[in-house]
């Protein structure tokens, strides 16, 4: 597959899946939809994600991100490039005696609650799939859960977020220097919002 060559300088061969069986397996999620991706990528660092997105942006290649694939709406499926941010993206750091926590997108929601329990805190989104849903998908869907109402939507609990944008730019919304740099390098983009 030609697209594989674009990424072979970024990821080792074992993290680029082009064979039909792997693509078929990753072409399904908890929904009843199916799309078979052209290739499946397993980046392990922010820098790898940045480089991949930069190439895809320049080559006009569509990219879809996926965490656990527990949503029923099919948005984690792709017939182009599927980038999986799952099991190796499970790091966390508790701050201020449990007042805040930094999470990577591949950590499971129930695991977050296990981590916060000794501090008397809870991860407020509570979708039915919390035992298998990952933070990346929970945040991307602005999930809350049937028993939560909108007060527990994911957007209500975020103080900051590190984002890798389509052009490969890394933006840390909790870092003033990163925000200021982004304002300079992406002024036109911000004006058009």
Plain-language structure description:
There is one protein chain. This protein is of the alpha/beta class and 193 residues long. The protein folds into 3 domains: 2-84, Uridine Diphospho-n-acetylenolpyruvylglucosamine Reductase, domain 2; 92-156, no CATH class; 162-192, no CATH class. It has 7 helices and 8 strands; from the N terminus they run H-E-H-E-H-E-E-E-E-H-H-E-E-H-H. The chain has helices at residues 2-7, 20-25, 46-59, 109-116, 135-140, 176-185, 187-192, and strands at residues 16-17, 39-41, 63-66, 81-84, 92-95, 100-103, 162-164, 170-172. The strands form 3 sheets. A 4-stranded mixed β-sheet has the order 1-2-4-3. The protein has a two-stranded antiparallel sheet with strand order 5-6. A hairpin with a 4-residue loop joins strand 5 (92-95) and strand 6. The longest helix is centred in the first third of the chain and has 14 residues, at 46-59. The model has no long low-confidence stretch (mean pLDDT 92).
CATH homolog superfamily of the largest domain: Uridine Diphospho-n-acetylenolpyruvylglucosamine Reductase, domain 2
Order of SSEs: HEHEHEEEEHHEEHH
CATH class type of the largest domain = Alpha Beta
Roughly how many Å is the radius of gyration?
Answer: 17 Å
* Average pLDDT figure: 92
Number of strands: 8
CATH architecture of the largest domain: 2-Layer Sandwich
Question: What is the CATH T-level topology of the largest domain?
Answer: Uridine Diphospho-n-acetylenolpyruvylglucosamine Reductase, domain 2
Number of helices: 7
Total domain modules:
3
- Unreliable sequence segments: none
- The percent range for helix content is 25-40%
Strand content: 5-15%
């Amino acid at each position: 597959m030609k697209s594989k060559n674009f990424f072979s300088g970024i990821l080792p061969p074992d993290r680029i899946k082009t064979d039909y069986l792997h693509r078929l397996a990753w072409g399904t999620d908890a929904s009843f939809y199916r799309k078979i991706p052209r290739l499946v990528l397993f980046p392990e660092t922010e820098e790898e994600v940045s480089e991949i997105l930069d190439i895809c942006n320049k080559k006009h290649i569509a990219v879809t991100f996926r965490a656990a694939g527990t949503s029923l709406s099919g948005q984690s499926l792709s017939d182009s490039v599927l980038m999986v941010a799952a099991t190796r993206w499970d790091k966390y750091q508790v701050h201020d005696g449990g007042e805040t926590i930094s999470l990577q997108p591949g950590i499971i929601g129930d695991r977050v609650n296990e981590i916060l329990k000794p501090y008397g805190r809870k991860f407020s989104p509570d979708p039915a799939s919390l035992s298998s849903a990952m933070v990346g998908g929970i945040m991307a869907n602005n999930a809350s859960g049937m028993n939560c109402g909108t007060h527990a939507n994911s957007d209500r609990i975020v103080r900051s977020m590190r984002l890798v944008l389509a052009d490969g730019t890394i933006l840390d919304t909790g870092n003033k220097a990163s925000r200021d740099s982004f304002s300079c390098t992406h002024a036109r983009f911000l004006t058009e919002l």
